[in-house]
Amino acid sequence: MTILDEINANKRREVAEAKEKISLDDLKKSPFFSRRTISLKAALHKSGSSGIIAEFKTKSPSKGVINENAEVTEVTSGYVAAGVCGLSVLTDRNYFGGSFENLAKARFANPATPILRKDFMLDPYQVYEAKAHGADLILLIAASLSKEEMLKLTELAKELGLEVLVEVHTQEEIEKLNPLVDLVGVNNRNLKTFEVDVETSVRLGKLLPESMVRISESGLSSVENIRYLRKAGFEGFLMGENFMKTDDPAKACAEFIKNL
């Protein structure tokens, strides 16, 4: 069993427990459920866009604790002030130290910035959760879903006004994409081995449909990485650990974008 298999099995148990506690009707009563969502795709296409999507996470399976002292409101507000295009907030607690509380805090602190709910999405219930807690888009990991499952979750997200970012790591996973997908993220980290190679983005980027917005994820640590990937056709760059591992993630982000 890979770490991804383990995470998914645990996530299915979590979702089953959540369904017992909070009904879909209750999720739909959330004040966030009626809000107009914000487009990350549009933010990336704005003139002068930095392309940076900054992530808030305090730990990961590969690195352990990254930053246990970071406060989500302070960090995400600092990211936005630094000029990011969007935010990514982890909601998986067991493996990434995330929470819905963090997502809601980021939403309240940054009402005009698109926010990705970063989690392992396997069930339609989770799409409703994302909407109810203030997300603007969801992540679908191709390695965790069949083509049919991905289409079902994408269709539901679009019905709820959410954008969809699909994460791929292999050519076979690209074949699971459907025309409703808004953005495609190439994960430079192999979710089965956790090895990182930025060339994965370049290699797979050439195989993606021209109409889809390309985002490179994981292992991005230098301005040179971003410039190189821009030349390869990438418009967005999901960065978390590079900022979160510092004492002041927002300051690190600001300095990075300034150097771009």
UniProtKB/TrEMBL annotation:
Domain Indole-3-glycerol phosphate synthase, residue spans: 4-255
InterPro entries named in the record: Aldolase_TIM (IPR013785), Indole-3-glycerol_P_synth (IPR045186), Indole-3-glycerol_P_synth_dom (IPR013798), RibuloseP-bd_barrel (IPR011060)
Record's keyword terms, sorted: Amino-acid biosynthesis, Aromatic amino acid biosynthesis, Decarboxylase, Lyase, Tryptophan biosynthesis
Pfam family, one: IGPS
Organism: Gaoshiqia sediminis
Entry superkingdom: Bacteria
Protein's UniProt keywords contain Acetylation: no
Lineage summary: Bacteria, Pseudomonadati, Bacteroidota, Bacteroidia, Marinilabiliales
Pathway(s) served: Amino-acid biosynthesis; L-tryptophan biosynthesis; L-tryptophan from chorismate: step 4/5
Protein known as: Indole-3-glycerol phosphate synthase
